[in-house]
Amino acid sequence: MISELTFRERRQALWVSGAVMVVGLLIAMAGHDNVIAVHGIAAALYGGAFLLIVYRYRDAPEPSLERLAQYYDDPTKVGIVVSLVWGVFAMGVGDWIAWMMAYPDFTFDAAWSSFGRMRPVHTTGVIFGFGGNALIATSLHVVQRTSRARLPDQFSPWFVLVGYNLFCLLAVIGYPLGITQSKEYAEPEWYLDLWLVIVWVTYLLLYLRTLARRQEPHIYVANWYYLAFILVVAVLHIVNNLAMPVGLGIDKSYSLFAGVQDAMTQWWYGHNAVAFFLTAGFLGMLYYYLPKCAGRPVYSYRMSIISFWGITFMYMWAGSHHLHYTALPQWVQTLGVTFSVMLLVPSWGSAANALLTLNGAWHKVRDEPTLRFMMVAAVFYGLSTFEGSFMAIRPVNSLSHYTDWTIGHVHSGAMGWVAFIVFGSIYSLVPWLWKCERMYSKYLIEIHFWLALSGTLIYLISLWNAGITQGLMWRTYGESGELSYSFLESMIAMKPYYVARGIGGFLFWSGACLALLNVLLTIRQAHAMETDKSDLTVSAGSSLTPADLPLTTEQRA
Amino acid sequence: MIFGAHYKLEKNSLALVLAIIVVSGIGGFVEIAPLFTIDETVESDPDMRMYTPLELSGRNIYIREGCYACHSQMIRTLKDEVDRYGPYSLAAESQYDHPMLWGSKRTGPDLARVGDKYSDQWHTQHLNNPRDVIPESIMPAYSWLLRNTLNAANLTDHLTAMKRVGVPYTSEMITNASNDALAQATADPALQDGLFARYGQDTNVRIFDGKPDTVTEMDALVAYLQILGQLTQLPYKDASLTDATLEE
Ligand code: HEM
Is B96–A101 a contact, with Cβ atoms under 8 angstroms apart? Predict the structure, then answer.
């Protein structure tokens, strides 16, 4: 992999790794009396490790020009494996904290391992580690295929992938140490936020530079979604993380915003992290891998246009539904509900578009667990967006907010939609990339499918029950006009549901482990075989399937 | 027609980028920008006081431990919430909260008005191991809070940062930050006067954790919990906040 880099690219890699190492050491020195030093040392080790790895290839010959005739997929390959490793780790943590909620002493008597510190390890790990790496990996694969262009250089994709994982790693090391801004999904402190800005701008430029080289006149739908994901996440991240650091060597900052303005900014960010990180990006994945795997063009070009702009416009208004009946002014709450309900139209447009694409390929859905993963993902996407719009309505929200129903809703999207589409895409992508006919074991995929589906259903059903029970207990009045239940009674009533959730989560996690195993075995096996390379060669004009091109039938008409 | 225009748009990546930024930008702009300019958004409240350095440290421990993952600090305008937790929360009450800690999940009860509800001793015992006080509790035990001494060294920098984002700490408060923190938790009569002068006579000055010899993280966290809902008396004076206009 590294010998594929040119001299110049290797030199760039050495400089950047060295710079990370030096900055890490400086942080460690500046913050010697502070936990930030741990971050500094970790960054220095990370930079140092890459420095050593690349240095070992200092005398490797310049790679042959033949490489330019092939797509550049090495970062995608690494990204897929890294994504699954994050998945196994962070879902494991998710299940651990799930059990902690039933058995609070199911942890160590140590600060680092307590619930409040582990919970962001789970959320960051699954969203950014598992989801984010899958997005970066697949976006680089998709943009090359749909543009029929190679990535413009070989260094920047590595910088994006390796730099992004440094961000995730330091974030996850930081929470157990107590380093957090407390903003949900934006927990990392100011210096990590700055680093992510650098990485993310490089990512955007890489994407645009690749598009600029495209040999297809049209930019394919999947890329619209990936672009929206990259762009909007950049804007959200920068605005929501504006903060005043306490000092240069100090891992603490104070948000620029306070109180009600901070709440609105945070949920404008939080809701659209769901919309543009956990939805738009994965819709990009859906729009490429599902049609390609089904061997059918996307059902409707017009529907995808309407859905895309609907989602891009309306989601940004919806954040205030997280703040119903709070001190946020009423007019903002009203706007939030209105747009949240209208959002159902583009959301169901996308889901329907995906499912209708499968028309004529239902036998494949029945026989191929890979395609079934994607089908279920589209169904859960439809279900959770419906549920979301429903929960945004004020009277429903008065019951559901603050309860486990919200957590159930989140996981209907996170497990049913996000994780399912990732698994489906990875299972179809891995054989293409490693040039083998199929995954190591279809049987393991089949088992994974049923583990994941049953795990998700157990999780969702138990938390719907939990949430509605909780919500009703909190608002029930007795004959004499007194509240019927103490808070404690509602807490005790949750126990069976929390136990069930722990079991469901375990099933889901076991499935993720099988996925990692299956992918690793496929890779090992692939090195022994050598087959069709057509998908890997730039401008493989005649072998493009309909799904490679922008929805031709309707569009050409 | 529209589709024809789109057919052109999707051939130009920079136009697409621009379109995405504009289309997605509108919502946030319309909803967020006015919150900074419309005066009624936050009630004006001359009595509202700021966190003392000790309480601010406690708040930072609350953030560090992720208490907000299980506890909200936002009582909604619903009858059952007001009956259970007290007058609903006003925007003014979190105007100095950088960041806000309204929360989104109630695995445990709302804490917006928990100040003065229990004794310091109850909190210390409860935080040290909730099951000593409430056997069924699923709240984590925070036994290290009593063991860790409070790091009050760079509180001056903390207050300076807070001032930079708009909290009206005076320069005297900033210079005396570390001493004020220790004074509040050791109840040392020699140091108290300055603290009262700067933050008001109602400031809670006590040995919160029951250990007179050291100022621990427990002192800071309990001091913070005891001030929740007590930074201003405005919500308790205004009867309309608890009355029957609330939704069931
Ligand atoms: C093995 C499967 C999983 C288990 C057992 C699990 C468990 C949990 C638990 C226990 C919480 C805390 C709930 C609470 O505080 O009440 C949580 C929160 C969360 N999880 Fe998971 N999780 C799993 C998979 C996932 C996946 C795959 C994703 C995303 C791709 C995800 C995203 C989230 C998010 C965003 C939250 C925060 C929810 C909120 O604050 O509303 N989880 N999870």
Answer: no
If you take atom 41 of ligand 1, which residue's CA is the nearest one?
Answer: A407
- The pick from A407, A462, A507 for probing ligand 1's pocket by mutation, whose C-beta has the most ligand atoms within 8 angstroms, reads A407
- The per-residue DSSP string of A47-76 comes to HHHHHHHHHTTTTPPPPPGGGGGB---HHH
Residues in chain B with pLDDT values less than 70: 1, 239-245, 247-248
Q: Is A402 exposed, middle or buried (0-12, 13-18, 19+ CB in 10 A)?
A: buried
**pLDDT on residue A548:** 46
- What's the gap in Å between A285 CA and the centre of ligand 1? 22
Nearest to A217 by CA among A472, A556, A452, A447: A556
Interface probe, candidates B9, B13, B81, chain A, greatest A C-beta count within 10 A:
B13
| Ligand 1 atom with minimal separation from the A97 CA | 10
Q: Which residues of chain A have pLDDT under 70?
A: 529-536, 539-557
Q: What is the CATH number of the domain that holds B208?
A: 1.10.760.10
A319: chain B residues, CB-CB within 8 Å: 28, 31
Question: Token digits for A351?
Answer: 């889901």
B16 touches chain A (CB under 8 A): yes
Question: Ligand 1 mean position to A494 CA, how many Å?
Answer: 17
Structural domain containing residue B20 = 2-41
Give the model's pLDDT for residue B21.
93
- The residue with tokens 């087959």 is A531
Q: A419: Cβ below 6 Å to ligand 1?
A: yes
DSSP letter string over A223-245? HHHHHHHHHHHHHHHHHHT-EEE
Q: Give the pLDDT score at B153.
A: 87
Cβ A228–B24 below 8 Å, yes or no?
Answer: yes
Tell me what pLDDT residue B191 has: 84
Residue with the nearest Cα to atom 36 of ligand 1? A123
Asked whether residue B48 is domain-assigned, the answer is no
Q: Are residues B64 and B149 in the same domain?
A: yes
**Pair (B135, B28) in one structural domain:** no
Q: Which of A314, A323, A475 has its CB closest to that of B80?
A: A475
Is the CB of residue A142 below 6 angstroms from any atom belonging to ligand 1?
A: no
**Distance, in angstroms, between A48 CA and closest chain B CA?**
29
Q: Which of A119, A302, A319 sits opposite B69 (nearest CB)?
A: A119
| CA of residue A373 to ligand 1 center, whole Å | 20
Q: How far apart are CA B157 and CA B178, in angstroms?
A: 10
Q: What is the rounded CA–CA span in Å between residue A223 and residue A266?
A: 27
pLDDT at B190: 84
Q: How far apart are CA A123 and CA A185, in angstroms?
A: 7
Which pLDDT score, from 0 to 100, does residue B241 have? 64
pTM over the 0.90 mark: yes
Q: Which phi and psi angles does B102 have, rounded to 5°?
A: -65, -30
Residue B235 lies in a domain: yes
Interval B15-70: pLDDT, tens? 999 999 999 999 888 888 888 877 778 888 888 999 999 999 999 999 999 999 99
As a whole number of angstroms, the distance between CA B169 and CA B56 comes to: 12
**Distance from residue A89's CA to the centre of ligand 1 (Å):** 13
* Separation between Cα atoms, residue A142 and residue A207, nearest integer Å: 11
- B128 and B216 share a domain? yes
What's the structural domain count of chain B? 2
Residue of chain A with shortest Cα separation from B57? A252
B37 and B63 in a single domain? The answer is no
Whole-number Å distance between alpha carbons of A494 and A397: 20
d(CA A272, CA A57): 42
- Asked if this assembly's ipTM is beyond 0.90, the reply is yes
Cβ partners under 8 Å of residue A162, min gap 6: A50
Within a domain: B151: yes
| Dist. CA A411 → ligand 1 center (Å) | 6
